[in-house]
Structure formats: C-alpha cells, structure tokens
Amino acid sequence: MIKRDDMTFPAGEYERRLNDLRMRIAERHLDAVVISDPANIMYLTDYQTTGYSFFQALVVPLEKEPFMITRALEESNVIARTWVDLTRPYPDTGDAMQMLVDALREFGLANKRIGYERNSYFFPAYHQDVIHTTLKHGKLLDCFGIVEEGRICKSAVEIELMKKAAFATEAGMAAGIDACRVGATENEVGAAISDAMFRAGGEPPAVMPYVTSGPRTMIGHATWEGRVMQDNEHAFLEVGGCYRRYHTAMMRTVILGEMGDSMYRAQQTMKHALREVHSILQPGMTVSDVDNLVRNIISDNDIGARLITRSGYSIGIAFPPSWDEGYMLSLKQGQSTILREGMT
Amino acid sequence: MIKRDDMTFPAGEYERRLNDLRMRIAERHLDAVVISDPANIMYLTDYQTTGYSFFQALVVPLEKEPFMITRALEESNVIARTWVDLTRPYPDTGDAMQMLVDALREFGLANKRIGYERNSYFFPAYHQDVIHTTLKHGKLLDCFGIVEEGRICKSAVEIELMKKAAFATEAGMAAGIDACRVGATENEVGAAISDAMFRAGGEPPAVMPYVTSGPRTMIGHATWEGRVMQDNEHAFLEVGGCYRRYHTAMMRTVILGEMGDSMYRAQQTMKHALREVHSILQPGMTVSDVDNLVRNIISDNDIGARLITRSGYSIGIAFPPSWDEGYMLSLKQGQSTILREGMT
Fold it and tell me: Most buried residue, A119, A168, A179, B107, by most Cβ within 10 Å?
C-alpha cells in the first residue's frame, strides 16, 4: 500500500475499507476476490476512469498486496490516483482475461478459492466464460455484494464529502428553475443546469439532469430534446450533482403560469409525505415500512396520481449509467432490510 | 407496427432495419431474438431511456409482432417514442425474468429457438442464470452482434442526422478552446463546453467531455476535477456531441503560452497522420492496414511520443458509459475486418 496524501480521503479511510473487506473475504473462506465493479474499485482505491467498458479489476488477496488489471491506457489512473503498487496492464491488441489469469498465477492465486462479482455489469458473460474455462486449477466463487456491504453505510468523511455534491446539485437546480420560462427550450434549461453545477465544483454525474416540459414530463427518464416550453405548462427537473463520483439528487416541478387546483393538491400531498418521512424515518425501520408510509400518503389522493415505482433508494458512489445504489437498498415492499445509521 | 410520423427517422428506415434483422434471424435458424442492448433497442425502435440498469428487452419473433419487456416506469418510452404495440411491463416489486418468460409463453415462443445477446452489459449474469433455469422447453442460443451487423454501416439518413451531433460537438469544442486560459479552472472549461453543446442542440452524450490540464493531461480518460490552469501548460479537450443518441467526437490540445519545439513537432506529426488517413482511407482496406498507416507515422518521432491504444474506432448510437462502437470495429492490429461504405 503506497502512502500518499493526495487521495480523496485520508489513508486511514482506505485502510479501514480494505481491512473490513478482508474480514469478509476470510468469513467466506476465500483466498482472494476479483473486484470488477467500477464503483467498488473506486471505493477501495480511489481509482476512477470512464473507460470501464474495457475490463478492469482490482484483485484483493486475503493477505498479500492487492494488484490491478487494466487496459494499458488506464494504468495512468492507478499511478495518479491510488495506493495500489502492482499493476498488470494489457494492450488494446491483447486479452484482458489472459492478463488476469496470468497475474493470478504470478501472485500464487491460480489454484486458490477466488471470489468474483458474478452479477457485475462490467464483467460480461464472454469474459466470465473464458475465465471459467481458463482457470482450471482454481475455484471461482460468486462474491457479488462483498464490497457493497461496506459501501452501504457511509462514514463521517463520506457524508462530509457528499455535501460538495449536494452543493453542486443545489446550484444546478437553482439555475434550472431560473431558466424555465415560456419560450425557453428544454436544451437551454439543461445547459443552464450543467453550467451552474460544474462551476459550483460538480463533476460529470453518472446521469445528466432530466429536463422535460408539458406532455413530455410523463415520459419516464426522458430529458431535453429541443422542445419549447409553453404557457401554463409545467416542467420537470431532476438533478444529480457529483463530486469525486459521490452523488446527491433532487427533483422539482416548475409551473409556467398559474398553479391549478390539482397541481396544488399534489404539491401539498408531496410536502406532507416528505415531512412525515423526515420526522419518522430512523435506524431500525425496514425499507418496506418506510415505503408503506410514503405510499399510503401519496396514494390517498383524488387527482388520479399513482406511485408506480419504489419510493426511494440509496445513493453514493456512482458511475454511468445509474446514480443510485438501488440494487443495494431500495425503499419498497416485500423486503425486510433494516435502515442503519450512515445510510444515505 | 404502429404507423407514426414523429420518430427520429421515417417509418421506412425502421422497416428496413427490422426486415434486415429478420433475414439474419432466419439465416441463424432462430425463431426469435431477445435484444437487451440499449443501443440495439433504439436502433430498431427509437426507444430510449437512461433507466437500462433495470432489465429491458425487445423480443423480435421471426414473423409475428415484436414486443417489449420494460420496467413499468419505462413503458411510457415505448408508447411515446416507438412503433412497438405490445408491451409487458413489470413493477419494481416484480421480477423481470419472470415477465420475460411469461411473455415468451404468451406469444408462443417458450418452446422455440430463442437468440439472446449473451455478452450484453445490461443482461447481467444473474438474469441469464435465471432464464436458463426457467425456460426449460425452449432453446437459448447466443446471437450477440446480430443487430450490430446492421448498425455498423450507416444509412444516408443516419449520416445526415449525425451532422447535428457534429454541430453540437464543434460548438462545444469552440467554447472549450475559448474558455481555456491561465487562471481558469478545468470545471469552468467543462461548464463552457457543456453549455455550448447543449444550446447548439446537443443532448446528454454517452460520455461527458474530457478536460484536463498540465500533468493531468497524462491521465487516461480523466476530466475536470477543479484544477487551475497555469501559464505555459497545455490543456487537453475531447468532446463527444450527441443528437438522438448518435455521437461524433473530436480532440484538441490547447497551449497556454508559447508552443515549445516538441509540441510543434508533435502537432506536425498528427496533422501529417490525419492528412494521410483522409487521402488513403477507403472501402476495402482492412482495419489493421489503416492502423499500421497511422501507427507508423506517429511512431516515427524523436520526442518520445507513443501510441499505446488502437488508432481509431467506429462511432454512432451510444448510451453511457461509452460513446464508441469499438467492440464492433476498431482500427488495430491482428484483425482482417474490411472497411465498408457507410462506416463512421
């Protein structure tokens, strides 16, 4: 572990994360884990790149020094950002899986019990097929979620850092609300949000802002596509600000004209729901109880509004295409997951 | 197939794409294909969303009507954007694979030969495991690349549309070059590029611009992180503009001060390489011959510059986290793929 003082967090934070992971590796009777999820790699090492459509992995042995497999172009990120001392890059004309297997051999792990994140988006099936047929003397075991167990509750320094993401989020949202007016295009509003959140210290978020207007506000996950905002319409804005890959997000509806009665009642319902969540939410509750609370308030309306999704999700480190940690924790029915301190 | 005139391309373009796909389905002796790659789904139907970390698929039977499986929230995108008439959405508390298998049953495909994109990032292993154990009477066969065969050569209307992406790219780059000056932060340059490309009609690209300065220009795929640009440094800008998910990209280096001798020689080398590519590149050449041409010119320098990556890649429809179609076509050694008309 290289000692350095220019990482996102103090060295102690990364040591704690790595030690906790190693305890889980030991509990599962593994000798090493191959971590391929970009957010998990960043959590452990501070490594980041947009280039994770090329295979990359951090291998953490139970005791020996961790090492990284990356595309040659990305090795610079290991050197510039992380405490990782050992890298085994592969060229664009080379083979990532061969490099991974060679490195496992080099570091005495080829005949050991190796955990891998089977459900990781960026360890696609062809690569998994190849490693299963190549690593003949080792045992490959699924350890999906082993890093997420550490990520799900944020430490004090993480929550402090997330305030910088929130600062960018709020700056973007304020500029977006300001830019919404009759005759403006959705693009102009998207431009204003982007400009403001990046000037406020924000970095490119895992998902760019959502800006829709009029009938387009009913399209799920749509954003600006050139439409001109009209009188008496409403616009939908959702902004996720990012700082060092940590995210926070907020949504707002902007009314262009007078607020109608049904919109007013919808607003009051949402304010009531948010107030209730703020006052009742606490560690120890299950995600389904929280979802129930929100769902009951929102469903109790006579304006035809429905909540067709989960009512919330965890948020933290994220890389495109998604800013949420919903696969770790979502507020929804049918789950007994318990809220704990440090969850965000 | 619903007839509508508000799609990105005229109906005939989608009919051609679907007919060509069905010819390939027949050639492979399949009865249907499950298309899960977001760019492939968009290519065939004009469907788009950022929400593809939830499973979604377009099922194209050889003869009968195609249908879509989406998260309930995303069904609005099928209705608002596509010619697809049949949707089978699943709720956030439901199971995507169960919905897929149920729909295959409903449409008489559960005991047929079904192609699926085994290597698709967004058909992760757990889902593949479940469908393999659930669809007991059908035969699942890999058809990865079956849609890409159609995408790799762009039609005249696609190339025309890509000019709008290029317009946004150029507007962003011009604003970025303009914003680079001693004392500016990388963030301010990123903000200027974003603002300009979105106002020029650009939509959120698959990858946000790269802006680095000074020593950070040596970090692969890094972008703004607050650094202040210094006198006599250079800044690296790479901008990918997007319109209706089609992308074009460009790179520029900005010198803050006087251009040194080695930078001048590097510039002349790159100009020479680009001129040669423009004059020599033509259909019929292999990707390795083109790569060789570029690589030889760039390698012939005495300033220590190296090309450590492939020398180029295909570009077109893209969703985060990558704007390139490099897995379909890259300019690199060791491949005999032939360049054809319409490739971009």
Answer: A168
